[in-house]
Amino acid sequence: MTTISADITVGEIAAGQPISTRVFEKYGIDFCCGGRQPLAEACQKQGLDPAVVLDEINRAAHSHEAAPENDWQAAPLGRLIGHILDTHHTYMKEQLPRLEAMLGKILDAHSARHGDVLVPVAATFRAMRNELDGHLMKEEMILFPLIRALESGDGPHHFHCGSVQNPIRVMVMEHDSAGGALSRLRHLTSGYQPPADACNTFRAFYFELSAMEADLHRHIHLENNILFPRAVALEAAVSIS
């Protein structure tokens, strides 16, 4: 089990002790796009005592009730990629068009009363969706095949993008963009709280937006904090050998 302290980055803690993500979610600590900051700094931003958060993580990790987590730090990279595709890419490809359809209905029915919120929500969501559609395709067509080739021993010289660090750099930038969009959506919707006169579709849209945010946080965490660093390290090891 990884020994953690307040000086370790949030991303490293999340990668070494996956159950810590439940604690981070509880306290609103960004463990995906914001995973590069030390826990002490992340806690300071949220007005939290790092010692309290560390204690809760340690208790969760040692709890007999803690559900077993996949050790993605040790699993083959191909298996981790398969999990990301089957779990997170599939989810996003289903949810994004579904949310788009719901959003259209809500705008038609509620923009007269709640346009000050719904118009910027729609603009933010649609820009994020367009970027995510392209992002998923680039991972599936370029980055993931490159990582699988590295793991199989067929190096990056077969790919026009060269080093695996090149597409990873682009993916991290797009992750940061998606994280910013999620933060704006949460702010615009007051934490996904529908107005009192919201219809069932309006309420369902906010609920599903919140669920999408949670899924995307875990998706980005697996890539930024585990898959990408391991792929970079593998490439370095291959180049030395």
Account of the 3D structure:
The two termini are about 30 Å apart. The chain folds into two domains: about 10-60, no CATH class; about 75-240, no CATH class. It has helices at about 10-15, 20-25, 40-45, 50-60, 75-150, 165-190, 200-240. The longest helix has about 80 residues, at about 75-150. The relative contact order is 0.14. It is built from seven helices and no strands. With about 240 residues, it is mainly alpha-helical. Helix content is about 75%, strand content about 0%.
β content, as a range?
under 5%
Fraction of helical residues: over 70%
Structural class: mainly alpha
Biggest pleated-sheet summary: none
SSE order in H/E notation? Answer: HHHHHHH
Number of strand segments: 0
Number of domains: 2
Could you say which overall geometry the principal axes of the C-alpha atoms support? globular
Helical region count?
Answer: 7
Distance between the first and last residues' Cα: 29 Å
Which parts are unreliable, with pLDDT below 50 for 5 consecutive residues or more? Answer: none
What integer value in Å does the Rg equal? 19 Å
Instruction: Compute the average pLDDT.
Output: 89
Question: Main traits of this protein?
Answer:
mainly alpha, 241 residues, 73% helix
Present the secondary structure layout.
Layout (H helix, E strand, L loop, with lengths): L9 H7 L3 H8 L11 H8 L3 H13 L14 H76 L12 H24 L11 H41 L1
Helix pairs in contact: 1-7, 5-6, 5-7, 6-7
